[in-house]
TrEMBL record, chain A:
GO terms for cellular component: endoplasmic reticulum; Golgi apparatus; plasma membrane. Keywords: Glycoprotein, Membrane, Transmembrane, Transmembrane helix. It comes from Limosa lapponica baueri. It is found in: Membrane. This is Cell cycle control protein. Belongs to the CDC50/LEM3 family. The keyword Ligase does not apply. PANTHER family: CELL CYCLE CONTROL PROTEIN 50, CELL CYCLE CONTROL PROTEIN 50C.
TrEMBL record, chain B:
It comes from Limosa lapponica baueri. Belongs to the cation transport ATPase (P-type) (TC 3.A.3) family. Type IV subfamily. Its EC number is 7.6.2.1. This is Phospholipid-transporting ATPase. It is a multi-pass membrane protein. SUPFAM superfamilies: Calcium ATPase, transduction domain A, Calcium ATPase, transmembrane domain M, Fibronectin type III, HAD-like, Immunoglobulin, Metal cation-transporting ATPase, ATP-binding domain N. Keywords: ATP-binding, Glycoprotein, Immunoglobulin domain, Lipid transport, Magnesium, Membrane, Metal-binding, Nucleotide-binding, Signal, Translocase, Transmembrane, Transmembrane helix, Transport.
Amino acid sequence: MKNKTSFPPQEGEARPSRCPDNSAFKQQKLPAWKPQLTIATVLSSFFLIGAFCLAVGVCLVLSANSVREIQIDYSDKCSDCSKLRENSSNWNKECHCSVNFTLKEDILGDVFMYYGLQNFYQNHRRYVISRSDAQLLGRNVNIQKSYCAPFTTYRNGTPMAPCGAIANSMFNDTIDLFYNLNSSVIQVPLLRTGNSWWTDKNVKFRNPESYNLSSAFAGTARPPYWQKPVYLLDEEDERNNGYINDDFIIWMRVSAFATFRNLYRRVRRIRQFADGLPAGNYTFHISYNFPVTKFKGRKHVILSTVVWSGGSNPFLGIAYVVTGTAATLAGFVITAIHLKLRKKKTYFQK
Amino acid sequence: MNVRVGDIIKLENNQFVAADLLLLCSSEPHGLCYIETAELDGETNMKVRQAIPVTSELGDTSKLARFDGEVICEPPNNKLDKFGGTLYWKENKYPLSNQNMLLRGCVLRNTEWCFGLVIFAGPDTKLMQNSGRTKFKRTSIDRLMNTLVLWIFGFLVCMGVILAIGNAIWEHEVGVCFQIYLPWDEGVHSAFFSGFLSFWSYIIILNTVVPISLYVSVEVIRLGHSYFINWDKKMYCAKRRTPAEARTTTLNEELGQVEYIFSDKTGTLTQNIMVFSKCSVNGHSYGDVQDMLGHKAELGERPEPVDFSFNPLADPRFQFWDPSLLEAVKLGDPHVHEFFRLLSLCHTVMSEEKSEGELYYKAQSPDEGALVTAARNFGFVFRSRTPKTITVHELGQAITYQLLAILDFNNIRKRMSVIVRSPEGKIRLYCKGADTILLERLHPVNQDLTNVTTDHLNEYAGEGLRTLVLAYKDLEEGYYQDWSERLHRAGSAPEAREDRLARLYDEVEHDMMLLGATAIEDKLQQGVPETIAILTLANIKIWVLTGDKQETAVNIGYSCKMLTDDMTEVFVITGHTVLEVREELRKAREKMMDSSRSMGNGFSYQEKLSSSKLTSVLEAIAGEYALVINGHSLAHALEADMEVEFLETACACKAVICCRVTPLQKAQVVELVKKYKKAVTLAIGDGANDVSMIKTAHIGVGISGQEGIQAVLASDYSFSQFKFLQRLLLVHGRWSYLRMCKFLCYFFYKNFAFTMVHFWFGFFCGFSAQVRCWLLTLAVGGRQFLWESRAQKRIPTVYDQYFITLYNIVYTSLPVLAMGVFDQDVPEQRSMEYPKLYEPGQLNLLFNKREFFICIAQGIYTSVLMFFIPYGVFADATRDDGAQLADYQSFAVTVATSLVIVVSVQIGLDTGFWTAINHFFIWGSLAAYFAILFTMHSDGLFQMFPNQFRFVGNAQNTLAQPTVWLTIALTTVVCIMPVVAFRFLKLDLKPELSDTVEERGAAAAGGRSRQLAEGNTLHLRRLRYEDSGRYSCSAGGRPLRSLRLLVEEPPETPRVSCYRRSHDKDVLCEWPQRAKPSPGTRATLWVKRRFSAENATEQRCRYFSKARKFVCRVKVPPGADDTKPLVVSTCVNNGAGGSAGEDRIITLSSVLKPDPPLNVTVEALEKAPQRLRVNWSYPSSWDPRFYWLRFQVRYRPEPAQTFTEVDQVTTTWLDIRDAWRGTRHVVQVRAQEEFGHGTWSEWSREAVGTPWTDPRDLTSEMGPFSSQFPTEDGTYWVTLPPELFQEDDAADAGGAVVEASARSTASPYAFLGIALFVGIVVR
């Protein structure tokens, strides 16, 4: 052993101490909460959650049952029209059909009218990206850079407004509802605005700035499948025309699944319809423009009311009831297992 | 310094030798120089090197400059103890040997300066040749992780293929029709090609399942753990001012999985300080620390050390606690005086007196220094020596002795002597040496004293002290003259000089008078035995690999509790040839198996088992064994054909000590274990000789603060005390492992939960994740980040594009990192208290392939719910204002929000230790998610980048819907509740040790124990042995007191009987027990030769509960004399007391009791109606090659009651000539050793037979001519009674040693004598 270890003390003090700090963090002694899965917490959480889920589930089921909904598939009923539309050269020929239905009871409250499409893959990747949000914001952008292809420009270079596959495939059937009251036919008043999100209507979509709409869209052309240019979507209402047309906005909010319904109109609650739709015979007059047979799709028209949880959808309520039941049962099973099978624990052992 | 071969280097005292040098000359006469080789082989005694005579005169530089010799030598190699070469100089040849070499790593001692010629430098030096290659170390979890990532990649490709096929089919069936609204991309002309493209794009989308950020996070966590190690105050050595240091940051979790520790001895286990601690003089033992009442005092309450102030020459550092020795010196006890006189004369220490009274001793070995220092303090001060004299200050009086001869020490003699002439003219020989050697050379009149001293020696050895025996002898002048004449002649004899000298030494060192014995403590480092005990409890096997001598190593083994007296046997392997080593290993294995089998299930084995069987048997061995192997034997044992045998033997032992090993052998041993055992190994050492082992082991630990930093530089962790190892492994290692495992489980879970949603969504969106070809090339180019970000911008998936980017980085990474860094399952004290907590790491239970699949399954389960519940809700639903709910963006926000919430809840469940940081990260992540979500969906960002932030307004519109929140809540409940249920049930039904420990901790802290509800008294009804343990009492969450309760019953007095089955078998001693002994009962048996001073051999006895017997196996040393009487003593003790049996005196031949003869058959002889032929065979336990058996046959006709006996049969057959006609006879045989030693065996099983009967008067009952009992099933010829063999097979198979533990409840009456020992420890 050499005497290396016996340094003079002052030298040792001069050196910085290499002793680690005695802080709780460095010594891993931070105060901490150590949650434990005890029988009390587990069982109480299971029973509480079970009770909560059952309660919510029952509410949801009850409210979903109170929703009235009428759904009419008109893709077959208008077979003539659909045949006509199969041939794309007939694009400018008009075709109408009507569908009758009877309401046995009144539908009270707000009534919403939807069009539903089946098998229409709005969630397809190429479809979803095929739009230019900058263009829809009214900006003059080079849409060549967007993913609108092949619905970007015409061969002669005229850009499409709006561009992209979503806009091009916009649902363009016109559906009117008539109430047959004592052999007289009353058109049910329908609201065509106020159906879209406020943010969409006021932030996300903007018409190009100009003194009037048609000049704003000068130099552009309608998408190939459209029958009229974008600034003629609603000739009656200036604030519902061009890109900020509600039908257009709603269409542009693509659906997550291939089967979906979009809000089309709301029943305006005036006159006979102040409380909703009275019982009786009704007719849908449909101007059939949107071909679906090509892709084996179906079209529906739906009338529905809503409650706090939205429209008629039994799934959530049933799921909650099932979950609540399962949680409660699991609580009982755990109790039983705990009482029967657990290892006896005595703390007074080494 | 640029040292090259051929340079001449000057070294000064205490300098490290920088290269392998040929010693040319030194400051000492004859070119001698002293070196310390601790760095090379761990030995700290000094060694002498000598220059060859021709160069030793080259004292000054001018002569050296003219030196132009040429050295031709062997190529560089790793043999530390061999060197061969020739020096050519001035047309002469001089042979060079290792004796002329100074090897790199040695330290020059006691030599002012020396010059050396560089022979090997740099990597050619023997030291460097001995250090293994540096390997890149990775942890097993790393390797597993890499495999898993590959698997995940495979899984990813599978998903890609499935989705691509789906895409091709979809495009073919559906997409074709949909082309009016969505034409195919340019260049895509077929569904097949579209599928091909979609394969690549899915690979890109789903790549989040292969966690790239995993590696980064793992490194961050390891870095954190390394900092915790560096910061640990409990691993800081204040004395050396060195904190622990994690020198690598990649191995932390492996610290939690260590199974084998390879430790150096010198400087690691020991401090390398020798202290004179006890002595026995004339049958009186001194040195026990005693308190006032004369009882042996416990450590920690030591009284003041003895005051040596009367002696001005005393060494102030020397301490001794027993004042009676000093009193004896002062009273002038002649024995004590002679004792210290011997110590001050008989040594080779050099003294140095720098100023008056300031003495320094330079000792070759620290033991010697300690002894001389002790003598110095007790007033016998060795002052100076010349070649002819030694001057000693005896109690202040200077006396000069004439030094007549030094009979020096070597490994064979194991003793050294001096012959001195006192001033009065008396010639006396003083001798000190190993007890085994010296006790045999004593004069017979010493018998009584020898016995007492032997007892003391045993006591000292039991405490792990190194002992030496001291003796003297008066020589007559005439005899001495004659002897010295002969010595002189022998010294000058040309041949066989050594032998002749040895014979002369032997002659004079005879018939000596015993003086006493010394005991030196090789000071262990602080806390070494405790650390080893705890590590052993944690199932870690510790091997000591040392360059030191075998005796030293074994001594240290005992003192640090690696070897204990409880061990069934310590095998020592010292063979010099391959065959010897193999034989010794085989014997050791047979011993182990023998005991485990014959004691265990009763199958005696006769055929040699194949080695594969051997292995499995060895693994089930229950007894405690230890193996000591020497370096030269190890060299053979490590050869390719024997290494497996060696390893299996060694691994079956509880402790392994390898002595005299070279650095490379150390590495080879580590490599061997690594290779065959697939276990995590850790090597710890302090010197350069440990570097190779440190580099080879999975984890290398360097002890810092000692001289030399090679070991530290090569190590992965370093600290300055061996005892810190337990903290490093049991606390830091365990936590690291636990945290890493939890982290990995969660990480894989969250990525699968996240990514698999894409997969399910693929089935609903036409499998449409397509990218263009230029993206593809980027993907193939592998520029991960670029294409990842590009792809995510381009490909709308289930989620918002930014969510994908941020999910791994912001939303989920920090909580899991915090868990990975801070989590603790049990407090650190608990992991020391319960070393068993370390086991999950060794067994790799917390993260393995099974756990991985569970995590993945949980992730997939979560992803399924995460997609399908929102799908079910959204499919037809509308918002409460009538608008569509199921738009793509709302769906994305809903899924993403529920995903973030679910994984946050999950991490909350996983986090067992919520520090403020965990709280901050978990809640912060959730808050950050919502903050970022609303920012991303805000108007401002959209106005700036409309094409990038197209989710504008989505968050506020979607999250305002009660349905959405109900969906999120439902998803969370459904994802989490099953996990909670499973975890709770697992905890409830199969709690891990850590759970129960934690729960107890919680119970103690929370005072929730049931028993406390009964008031403030605890009643233990029906007290059982199992009630022993620590009881603590707490109130208001604070532990008040704890006490230990011991429930045991004093043992019964043993009545021993011994027997031996054959000459070459061990003796078995046994005694019956009336009741089952308490669990802590230890029974020990000592055997020693009567009238002999040798140490008794000690055996641990085992209790066999079925047979109700204690059985010991007494090993008979080969070549033992069968007729010499042996004394067998027994002692049984436990916490409640002890009792000793009467000594029994046996001879090995008198206890012989063969097994009964086998295969006894009785045959009729043709045409001899009165004769029967009896045949039998030797019992299998008896080898008839050495001694025969003689037999006694007895027979009777069946109707008769009495047997007729035939004596003195030496054949294995007998003709009975007086059989009754036609009657069945019963025959039995028993055996005894041929000379009548020992006792008769038991009678064999009865055999029956009927003599031949004339067929004419054949009666109906004629059976077969011979009838024979079937040979037994193998259990028969073992002497142990059959019921013994049925004992607790289960326990033995499981390897339980103490089978008396808590199996059956002892009956109530057994508790009448129960003693309770209650020691109260106030916390």
